[in-house]
Design goal:
28% strand, 8 helices, 20 strands, 475 residues, alpha+beta, 29% helix
């Protein structure tokens, strides 16, 4: 980044002689993703920490601030980490001072900062804390003496409570180890630790990066049972499951229940996406099992019998995968057409662009054929909203080679009456006319590209969405 790209937005006088650390926490609001309101903290070598309330989108004037650490105890606040909690609209700030961890619950009230509660968990290390990581409700601290502590945070009625337990990290090192920086993965499953190992003979230090599992399988499965929101927030949990299944070459009962759809979380779409992921993993696992069985020294008859049995299972599993993909497309299409109708009614839109009308018709036709009882009212309402001439075959997609109608369609392919086959966009369900088309970075689902003609239309928002099958990014 060049100096020309950087501008000074505002200069804040911290009032400190020797600032030592700085940290910023944005208000993470799902309803306002561009919200840049948050708290800004600065620590000083004197031991004090001050917090400011800032909105970087607006001109910064009359900034309110609060000294949260008032004692000049000369304990250096060397690390600060934050979490914003939507429930309760509070900020949790973790500050390390020497070998101690301090936790504050803050809130912005009428542009003023208020301390709701604070505590010092029983997490003191024998030596100064060198690493701090804060994810969800878990704080991890590491020290140069080779100790790691885990502090679980709970907030209830503006009251903080903490529980600290030591974390046993086994690195199989014969030399003394000092822990420096530490990082938690998104769902607190893995820890990355920068370690310093001292050689007994030479006395030389060497820095290494080590990765350690923090959670057990039952804890990860419990998180997946209560999954909500985007699947991309659970990538480390899915990677953990993939590694365990690949190593053990089988699915445990709890994972099988998820794969079979016997267990559903509150978020139906996310649950279906996890089910699809596990089914595809199971399919790959079956193929690996067949390959290994063929390589084993068994009789030809046993080989053929096992191979045939596994092939039948894979065929059944492939059908189940198609069924789950169809359910995901139903959820996606229903969500899209409901938003489209709401937008049309709220803005009083009368003229519908041809491309947009074809996309909506394609989705409504799909729902009328493959949807369940809850989609009938929506489908009937949209058919009623469209004029009679807009429902003719001329307004629907036709084969670009022979202009024939499409007689057979599934979630990924469309076949016309003359046998011409085309891939379909996973976002719009329309033909993939862009070559090369975009692909999902995880499951390779195709999608059309975003063109200048889509700017300002409903299709612009639709084509910006992630993959409906796995929530992956389309590239």
């Amino acid at each position: 980044m060049s100096e020309e790209c950087v501008t000074i937005h505002k200069v804040i006088d911290s009032g400190f002689d020797s600032p030592s650390t700085i940290s910023w926490c944005r208000k993470n609001d799902n309803h306002l993703p561009s919200n840049h309101t948050g708290l800004f903290a600065v620590g000083d070598t004197s031991g004090q920490v001050r917090v400011w309330c800032i909105n970087v989108d607006n001109e910064i004037t009359n900034i309110s601030s609060l000294m949260v650490c008032t004692e000049k105890d000369l304990l250096l606040p060397n690390l600060i980490s934050w979490q914003y909690q939507t429930d309760g609209d509070v900020y949790i700030m973790a500050v390390t001072k020497g070998s101690y961890l301090m936790v504050y619950m803050l809130q912005i009230v009428n542009n003023d900062i208020v301390i709701l509660d604070k505590c010092i968990p029983a997490t003191a290390h024998p030596m100064s804390i060198a690493g701090l990581s804060f994810r969800k409700n878990v704080i991890l601290t590491s020290s140069t003496d080779g100790t790691v502590n885990k502090t679980a945070i709970k907030t209830l009625n503006s009251v903080l409570s903490t529980k600290t337990t030591p974390v046993k990290v086994t690195l199989n090192e014969k030399t003394p180890v000092k822990y420096h920086s530490i990082v938690l993965s998104a769902n607190c499953i893995y820890i990355a630790i920068v370690t310093c190992c001292t050689d007994y003979i030479t006395g030389e230090d060497s820095l290494e990066m080590n990765f350690v599992e923090l959670q057990r399988m039952e804890d990860v499965i419990k998180d997946l049972y209560s999954i909500q929101g985007k699947l991309t927030k659970y990538l480390d949990a899915l990677e953990y499951i993939r590694q365990k299944i690949s190593a053990e070459m089988e699915l445990c009962k709890e994972i099988q229940d998820l794969a079979l759809g016997k267990v559903r979380g509150e978020d139906k779409k996310a649950s279906l996406q996890i089910q699809l992921f596990l089914m595809k993993l199971q399919l790959c696992l079956g193929k690996q099992t067949v390959t290994k069985a063929i390589k084993m020294e068994v009789s030809e008859q046993t080989k053929r019998k096992d191979s045939l049995s596994t092939t039948n299972k894979q065929t059944t599993l492939s059908d189940e995968i198609s069924s789950v993909e169809k359910k995901l497309i139903n959820e996606h299409a229903l969500e899209v057409v409901e938003k489209w109708r709401e937008r049309k009614m709220s803005q009083g839109i009368l003229e519908i662009p041809n491309e947009e009308r074809r996309v909506i018709l394609t989705m409504v036709d799909w729902l009328s054929q493959h949807g369940d009882e809850k989609t009938k009212d929506t489908v009937s309402a949209i058919y009623k909203d469209l004029k009679e001439e807009q429902l003719s075959e001329l307004c629907r997609e036709s084969c670009p080679l022979c202009q024939g109608t499409f007689s057979e369609c599934n979630v990924k392919m469309m076949t016309c009456i003359n046998g011409h086959k085309f891939g379909r966009c996973c976002l719009t369900l329309a033909l993939c006319t862009d070559l090369p088309s975009r692909k999902c970075r995880h499951c390779d689902a195709p999608a059309n590209r975003l063109h200048s003609r889509h700017e300002g239309t409903f299709l612009e928002d639709l084509l910006h969405q992630p993959c409906p099958f796995c929530n992956g990014e389309l590239l």
